[in-house]
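job 3f2a | input accepted
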Amino acid sequence: MMTAGFVFTAFCISAFFSGFVFYYLISYPKLLIMRKVRSLEKDLLYALRHLLIQVRSGVTLFNSIVSVSKAGYGLVSEEFDSTVKEINAGVPEIEALDNMAFRNPSLHFRRVIWQLVNALRAGSDIGNTLREIVSSMANEQRIEIRRYGAQLNPMALIYMMSAVIVPSLGITFLIILSSFVGFFILPLDITLYLILAFLVFFQFMFMGLIKIRRPALEV
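job 3f2a | predicted structure (219 res):
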């Protein structure tokens, strides 16, 4: 019985980790895209404020883009630097901005660039357009922060139930029920180790969920 229990435990653990690795490999491309999106959006508002100050100071849009590309705004500066290189290579400014929007997965980033492109095509004031974009993005980030704060309370309740209350009561009942002969397929010590492994996995996943739901802001 003990040998069969160990075989069953090893099979369950191997199946669990095999499924986890398979899911991770399937989700890895989406994870890379998500990381790029968060990296873009966390510095986007600051880069746009920099761009707005430059344009409002009388600097041309191209020179403002060059300034942002050298200002150290992470992936945003890298994308602006690629656009500067395209323009210097002879690509029209509007077309280079369009290319920058299409090659990036962030919807916020695309929307900002497309608004700039539309303003350039319409011949409207770039400064006013940037001011409206910055104001809109700042309001959206405030809303995201409030929404994130509202989500923390139910998530904290779920964590307390799943990682503290249920395991504590469950282990107490298991200890009581273990006194009945033949109740468990697995020995009690193996069952406790499985519960511990589940708790470690749950806390790891819960921390990842908190990190994913956190707004992409650079403080």
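job 3f2a | Residues 162 and 202 are 8 Å apart (CA to CA).
job 3f2a | closed
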